[in-house]
Design goal:
homodimer; 6-stranded parallel β-sheet; 11 helices; about 45% helix; DNA-binding
DNA sequence: CTCCGACCAGTAATCGTTTACCGAGCGGCG
DNA sequence: CGCCGCTCGGTAAACGATTACTGGTCGGAG
């Protein structure tokens, strides 16, 4: 029996007699035969995997994006490669190169990025290099790139979310809102800052630079910045944390200082991570549809593969979830 | 210039004149050339990827295992495929088949499993099939298989961890400890139950079946089971939750019933997820080295690849983290 | 009885690399 | 001056599948 016969039998789209079909399946059983993807990919084409590139898998929001993306990829018969960069730019460069070699269908860069000098040129380079290799670059949770690049962008409304959060605080009567921002130049952080300032302006409150404190989106940074603000005697009655994780740190610092939340200080977060509702007090925060974000990113990239049509820019909305960490100032 | 020259130049392990090297690199630049992994894999060998198979990426403990595994894999130059099964056995079967085709170096099954009738036969089948395809099956967070199978097992001390937790409660004077177990036949759950019972015996306390309540490791189940126990008027002064997430649900139910933790009821969890310390009260729980678990799983599997030697069974220890959710009964 | 078409199976080219083997050019040494 | 060996580049086989093309067998129709 020739290899051609076996191949056709397994493919199933060619007339094969029942006798040979039986012989083939029997041999497959006996020899534990499995096709070799590499060989298969070389001739008839195999659908490429989806690559998920993120800073850290354990971050609650990033994990949800990854979960959504994996789910969508699996539903479309793709495997998902997930890679952590730990904010290492060289690693990201390597990964893009690797994914070209792997013939990934899509390379999804997840999460905000620091918008430094080389950023846009680097992304443009990624987009072109991946496009030339037949892969699609997807930016997920970061803003679009200028120019006409082969890239798909799926973002969410950071500015609007922040606006809602701060509007809620100001609507309750607060005027001095400490903003625990993100890192300087971080795209998400900047957009949230814009929302913060717009809400301030909408309520006729002057922006006070000393209340806008940058720092990483981590628990300990939230704790330290809040603690420092308290030690400096900064005047504020509410805190808008750039992230729920930061809010948790802030909560710890406030409590440690003998301040009650929301009795003395109100607190709003961002992300609506699963445990936000389980804090004491339950955290009022901005819900971001993270799983949707991941699903949409993969869906758009994979839809592009076939027909040329299709969106290549989507903005998902956010939603303020009111719980129990906000109260009018005393 | 022949392809052979190009290949050798790029490989770099063959004498090539500077002139040709320059020509090659120039052409690579100009044509945006990248090697094709599939072709490469067909001839000279390419190191296979690591496959991480877990129920759900967003579970805090599973995410940490995945992060550790990905990190170790990346450090060894491997890509990581991550796949969610959502507890679907057929999907798991498909995945094992897929990974054979992919020539994965290791297939890591992460998290406890339900030990039903077919379980061991199925795992044995996986182990043999993967072994025949040159892959290594790794069981991560579940017990070893009987018999002499080509499988690597990396587990942690569920029984010992549960013992420590319950011992701590009993040592504080509690005698009626509600156990919010896992699902019936789930390996982790059964081991934790064993630890619970052993601790009881060690303190001369009789095991009371009505205090041992099975259910899924979810927040809502923790809430519902605690609520039901309260409604039934069950007598208990402490709760040992099979998981921190379950503990969170229990905490909500207790609080809703007007009971203070740890004033009226003490509470211990399991896992030490990141937010455990941020609950009110900070949760006393059992720390499991999840990242280590993932790293070790990948390390052992990959070490096997070369030399035949190496461990194929490791048990990692757990550690009781005492915080503020336990107090002697009134 | 012959011829044609349907049905089935084999031959060989192809995908993109790697690498064993071969051979050409050339410099040094006897 | 001739031979040897080193340097460097080409030829071709192999990896494992898919598939166009070819060809053989058999049944039915003319």
């Amino acid at each position: 029996m020739s290899v051609a016969t076996v191949s056709r039998t397994l493919a199933g789209n060619y007339p094969v007699s029942d006798a040979t079909r039986a012989r083939v399946t029997a041999a497959v059983e006996a020899l534990h035969y499995v096709v070799n993807v590499h060989a298969k990919a070389l001739s008839g084409r195999v659908a490429g995997p989806v690559a998920l590139v993120l800073q850290d898998i354990t971050g609650p929001s990033l994990a949800h994006v990854a979960a959504g993306a994996e789910q969508e990829a699996a539903a479309r018969g793709r495997l998902s490669l997930v890679c952590a960069t730990h904010s290492d730019q060289d690693r990201e460069d390597d990964l893009v190169q690797l994914m070209r070699e792997q013939h990934a269908a899509a390379v999804v860069l997840v999460g905000g990025a620091v918008l430094d000098d080389g950023y846009q040129a680097r992304m443009a380079e990624y987009a072109r290099a991946l496009d030339a290799a037949g892969s699609r670059l997807v930016l997920c949770g970061r803003p679009p790139l200028p120019g006409d690049l082969p890239v798909t962008v799926v973002e969410y409304d950071n500015r609007g979310g922040a606006f809602q959060a701060v509007d809620h605080l100001l609507g309750a009567g607060h005027r001095r809102v400490l903003f625990l921002a993100g890192e300087p130049l971080n795209t998400s952080a900047e957009e949230r800052r814009t929302g913060y300032r717009q809400a301030l302006r909408a309520h006729g409150v002057d922006y006070a630079g000393e209340l806008d404190i940058p720092g990483p989106y981590t628990r300990v940074s939230g704790y330290q910045r809040t603690r420092a603000a308290l030690d400096e005697g900064l005047d504020f009655t509410a805190v808008f944390a750039g992230t729920d994780v930061v809010a948790v740190g802030a909560l710890a610092a406030l409590r440690e200082a003998g301040l009650s939340v929301p009795g003395d200080v109100s607190l709003v977060g961002f992300d609506d991570v699963p445990f936000a509702a389980d804090l004491t007090p339950a955290l009022t925060t901005v819900r971001v549809p993270y799983e949707d974000l991941g699903r949409t990113a993969v869906r758009l990239a994979l839809e592009r593969e076939n027909r040329l049509a299709g969106d290549d820019h989507v903005v998902l909305g956010t939603q303020l979830v009111i719980r129990q960490s906000v109260r009018p100032p005393k």
